Amino acid sequence: MNRKHMIVVGSFAAAFAAVAYLGWALLIQPVNKKIAAKLAEKDDVSKKLETAKRQAAQYDKFRAQAENIRRDLNLISRRLDADLSMREMNRLNSRFLSYSGLAVDKVSAEKRERSKEAAFGGLDAVPFTITFKGGYHQVGNFINAMLAGQRLLVPQGLTFNQVADADLASGSTVDGILKISLFVEPAAAK
C-alpha cells in the first residue's frame, strides 16, 4: 500500500470516528439522559404508589374502626333514655335483686346531675346506693345482671362491712353497700 492509500484510509477512519462520536454525542447520549430521567421518574412514582397503598390500607382500617365506634355508640344510645320514671327504677332494681337473691335493706337514689366523668361527658348520672345482705356469689350475680341489663349502669364502689375470714370461707352472708351510677341522656330543659 502506498502512502496515498494510507492517507485515504486514515482519513476514512478519522471521519468514521468523528461521525461515531457525533452520533453518540447528538443521538445516543440525549436518549440515555432521557432514559435515566424516566427511570428516576418511575422510581419516584413507584414510591408514591407504595405510599398511596399504605394510606389506602390505613383508610380501610380507619373505616373499620369508625364502624365499630358507630356500633358501640348505637348500643350505648339504645341503653340511654332521658325519661327515667321511679316505676321503671323500681322495676329495674327488683329484677336485678330478685335475680341475684340479695336481701336489700335500702335503695336510695340521689339527685340526677350532669356526669363529671370524661368518658360519659354530656350525660346525666343518677347515683344509687344499695345497702344489702348476701353471699359472695349473690353479689357477683347482681353485678353481672346489672352490667348485662338494658340500661347503662356503672358500679362506682362496693364496700363490705368487716367480716372475719372464717365467716367468708363458710359461705355466710355479708353486709355491704354498693354504689352505682345510671347514665341517661340529659333531660330536656323545662
Which key terms come to mind for this protein?
alpha+beta, single chain, 4 helices, 190 residues, 5 strands, Alpha-Beta Plaits
What does this protein look like?
- There is one protein chain.
- With 190 residues, this protein is α+β, with helices and mostly antiparallel strands.
- It folds into 2 domains: 1-78; 86-184, Ribosomal protein S6/Translation elongation factor EF1B (Alpha-Beta Plaits, 2-Layer Sandwich), CATH 3.30.70.
- Helix content is 57%, strand content 21%.
- The protein has 4 helices and 5 strands.
- The protein has helices at residues 3-78, 86-100, 136-148, 165-169, and strands at residues 103-109, 113-114, 124-134, 152-160, 174-184.
- Strands 1, 2, 3, 4 and 5 form a 5-stranded antiparallel β-sheet that branches.
- 9% of the residues are buried.
